[in-house]
Design a protein that fits this description.
This protein is α/β, with parallel strands linked by helices. It folds into two domains: about 15-155, NAD(P)-binding Rossmann-like Domain (Rossmann fold, 3-Layer(aba) Sandwich), CATH 3.40.50; about 190-425 and about 445-490, Dihydrodipicolinate Reductase, domain 2 (2-Layer Sandwich), CATH 3.30.360.10. Helices cover about 35% and strands about 20% of the residues. It has 15 helices and 17 strands. It has helices spanning about 25-40, 60-75, 80-90, 105-115, 135-140, 160-175, 190-200, 230-255, 270-280, 285-290, 310-315, 415-420, 425-435, 445-465, 480-490; strands at about 15-20, 50-55, 90-95, 120-125, 150-155, 180-185, 215-225, 290-300, 300, 305, 325-330, 340-345, 355-360, 380-385, 390-395, 405-415, 470-475. Strand 4, helix 5 (about 135-140) and strand 5 form a beta-alpha-beta unit. Helix 1 (about 25-40) packs across helix 2, helix 6 runs antiparallel to helix 14 and helix 8 (about 230-255) crosses helix 14 (about 445-465).
Length: about 500
């Protein structure tokens, strides 16, 4: 089910991997290190070229120096091999291009046409602002470099609401067919997220329990200890709901709740995820008021250091943008009706963690009335980051004579200890899947628009109630107290240390 990380390159065509925004943070921090690791594993086909496009006045040599420095900064020293670095740098070129002017785009045409092999794959990675997605695609079409084997990769956010998402999709769709468009969500490339599918569908013991009959509720948390940093300008126009919930958290929810596909293939998984999004109970104004919480971090202490508030990070007060969201959702279908899904994400939290916790119902009958010790509900805890793994929490008898003493225990699977291989970064897998033309782990247009359709009533209700500003929570905590109350009124609590 999960593609092997060291799949040989036999049969893979050479490719031209063009990164627009080639000197930006995403390219230097994630994409080029990911390409380096695939080069180190000899996965990049012979003849593959990496072309950075940006407005920087760099020639090939200057760009290679920038890339070398990025690798030294963002690749673990023990993973840096001079020979592999050299091979990667030999593949690298740079072109100075501006998406909004036609100047010099003929240079890209000339570079790509140097190798007219019809089997060569062209990947155009848009590591730029979504406002440039359409203009860049139009330039690519105008200079005649879009071929049937070409692919375009779009980073989130895809729009800021349903209407803008459709405009972005329309602009890119005028140049590329849907089968050529790869909308990336790096969470779907993480080993633990993919292993969720394997755990569910390659093992028989869970499937009979994976429904409202035995699951009490599901919690999905993506928490960060960092503030907005240099992204304050972008973030204040986006907020946590657009930045995290509409894509990452809803995608994780889909993988938990989806029905078993006929097989794990190119469209079957995406078909089932779409059904989950379409089954989400629509949010009325009353639902939004009752079942959503938004917050903004204030001053506090994170990792022993005093950190500023969101307003101080922005440099001005009066923002109504949320840095924290907690909400309650329901999937209205035969399997999940009545099971609440609690989603939570925030910045400047007490810990950095991405996790899914499936909490099962209590046993229907107390079989050990005279036992001592606590009984707790079984929980399947899926750790997405920073440490990837799974823990199944159970109740066991404590060893010893005499009466029965109960104690919570866990069955642990840590990828770091269970497997000797290095766990690849999500971008490594997603880049290679793009070259292979495998869209399984990418979002389809109808998925993106279904997610915006569900989120949009929340945004509209928040905009209609400006007096209900985000609740302040101290940095270094688990969020506003209203988020705890969201579960407590249902007789539940967040699994803070699951």
């Amino acid at each position: 089910m999960s593609l092997p990380t060291t799949e040989p390159t036999t049969g893979l065509p050479a490719s031209d991997f063009v990164v627009f925004g080639g000197t930006g943070d995403l390219a230097l921090r994630k994409l080029l290190p990911a390409l380096y690791h695939r080069e180190r594993e000899h996965q990049l086909p012979e003849g593959t070229r990496i072309i950075g496009g940006s407005r920087s006045e760099l020639d090939d040599h200057g760009y290679r120096l920038v890339v070398r420095e990025a690798l030294q900064t963002h690749v673990a020293p023990g993973d840096l091999e001079a020979e592999a670095v050299g091979r990667l740098l030999d593949r690298i070129h740079h072109l100075t291009l501006d998406a909004e002017t036609p100047d010099d785009w003929h240079l890209l045409h000339g570079l790509l046409k140097e190798r007219p092999d019809p089997e060569r794959v062209r990947v155009f990675y848009l590591a730029v602002s979504p406002a440039l997605f359409g203009p860049i695609c139009e330039r690519l079409e105008q200079v005649g470099v879009v071929e049937p084997s070409s692919r375009v990769v779009m980073e989130k956010p895809i729009g800021t609401d349903l209407d803008s998402a459709r405009r972005v999709n329309d602009a890119v769709g005028r140049v590329f067919d849907e089968a050529q468009i790869f909308r990336i969500d790096h969470y779907l490339g993480k080993e633990s997220v993919q292993n969720l599918l394997v755990t569910r569908f390659a093992n028989t013991f869970l499937e009979p329990l994976w429904s409202s009959h035995w699951v009490d509720h599901v919690q999905i948390t993506v928490a960060e200890t960092l503030g907005v940093g240099e992204r304050g300008g972008y973030y204040d126009h986006a907020g946590a709901l657009r930045d995290m919930v509409q894509n990452h958290l809803l995608q994780l929810l889909c993988l938990v709740a989806m029905e078993p596909p006929t097989y794990v293939g190119r469209e079957t998984v995406r078909d089932e995820k779409l059904k989950v999004l379409q089954a989400l109970k629509p949010m009325t104004a009353e639902d939004v008021d009752r079942d959503t919480v938004r917050g903004a971090y204030g001053q506090g202490v994170v990792d022993g250091a005093v950190v500023p508030s969101y307003a101080e990070d922005l440099g001005h007060a009066g923002s109504s943008t949320e840095t924290f969201v907690a909400l309650k959702a329901e999937v209205q279908n035969w399997r999940w009706a009545g099971v609440p899904f609690y989603l939570r994400t925030g910045k400047r939290m007490d810990r950095r963690v991405s996790e899914i916790v499936v909490v099962f119902k209590e046993p229907p009958h107390a079989m050990f009335p005279h036992a001592s010790g606590p009984t707790t509900a079984n929980r399947l805890h899926i750790q997405v980051q920073p440490e990837e793994g799974m823990r199944l929490h159970m109740t066991a008898k404590e060893p010893g004579p005499g009466g029965i003493r109960l104690r919570p225990v866990s069955l642990d699977l840590s990828y770091a200890t269970a497997f000797s291989e290095r766990s690849p970064d999500a971008y490594e897998r997603l880049i290679m899947d793009t070259i292979r033309g495998n869209p399984t782990l990418f979002m389809r247009r109808d998925e993106v628009e279904a997610a915006w359709t569900w989120v949009e009533p929340i945004l509209q209700r928040w905009a209609e109630t400006p007096d209900r500003r985000p609740k302040t929570y101290p940095a270094g905590t688990s969020g506003p107290t209203a988020a705890a109350m969201l579960l407590e009124r249902d007789g539940r609590t967040w699994q803070e240390h699951a």
